[in-house]
Amino acid sequence: MTTQAVQGTVAEGFEAVREEFAAFVATERPDYEGQLCAYVHGRRVVDLWAGEGAGPDALYGVFSSTKGAAHLVVALLVQDGTLELDRKVTYYWPEFAAEGKGQLTLRELLAHRAGLIGTDTGFSLAELADDRQIAERLADQRPFWRPGTAFGYHALVIGALTGEVVRRATGRTLQEVYEERVRAPHGLDFYLGLAAAHEPRFRPTQPMEPTPKQQALLDALPQGPHTLAAIAFNRHVEVPTDLELLPNDPVVRAKGPASAGGVASARGLAGMYAAALSELDGKAPLLKEDTVAEFGQIHAAGYDLVARGHKSYGLGFQATADTWHPFLGAGSFGHSGAAGSQGFADPRSGLAYGYTRRRFAFPGGAAPENGRLVKAVHKAALAR
Fold first, then answer.
1. Is the pLDDT of residue 223 over 80?
2. How far, in Å, CA of 43 to CA of 82, rounded?
3. CA gap 118, 356 in Å, rounded
4. CB count, 10 Å around CB of 213?
5. Alpha-carbon span 62 to 71, nearest angstrom
6. What's the whole-number average pLDDT of the chain?
7. Closest by alpha carbon to 275, among 260, 262, 292, 290?
8. Exposed/middle/buried for residue 341 (C-beta within 10 Å: 0-12, 13-18, 19+)
């Protein structure tokens, strides 16, 4: 159990959120570090942290929560008319047609329906850090199921695939568009490519330390090197990818691959979704209501061939209410990250949420504590 004190502030009416966070932190390891932030209708109402080194400006690897930033860029470009969801990917990227992928639409790609979860021979760490290299390899790859007929989590590659569409359509990388249109205008501490000046703020991810019971559950999972999960997480190569330590590589942080290479604080995560949904700092919402509805609508739901269980996806985003928190409003959209981070927007309550933690949580994905923290924040938001 930890003796770490919870620091930060909450708005009137959100005192119970602080109490819930403190109760959780009290049960954690002494070295726990984490941050919790939330906005309601563009106003920051929760700004908490706990743990030595976990101040509000600390930055953490947020793994697949990065996908939320990546696909906010896609949503903006669709809203502009630069991208069209029902055009074939090959309209933007002709080489993608190889090996029977020519009929796939951008809408299907965003919903993890491409069957293009990795390559037969896998990626090096240098390739995983570079979206252009991933895209080039995947253009020639035969899909692992017939595109459009099923779906499965494109864990380490979806941002490279959609990012290549962005690059072909705009002449700029997804990371460049994100910096110009999302991060910089709002001063968000959520980076797809961490500048050297911010490196001292980065807190390296600590590996999971499962209990014996938890380790037994992990050991019971199918571990074959040629399973879809192994291919999707690049574990079928001679030196399997150590997902837990991916953001600790300085090249990954510097390049910010759009599937899992982002670095953020909870303020950055929540602030991005607040900017997407609401007026923030005097600036209009990034997304119009119709765009929010389109990207938050469920486009793939049921058995995920990679995750081996029920999952739901909108367009590039997870359908947060169906996958994680059923008490949220319909159309909630966001993304979780392997170490335990989570960020999302709930259009019906105006809630934007962000959570980070330093140590990789069991069993991966949104850390279990998000359930109780989100419920407390949502209850307070509805009571306003």
1. no
2. 31
3. 27
4. 8
5. 15
6. 95
7. 292
8. buried
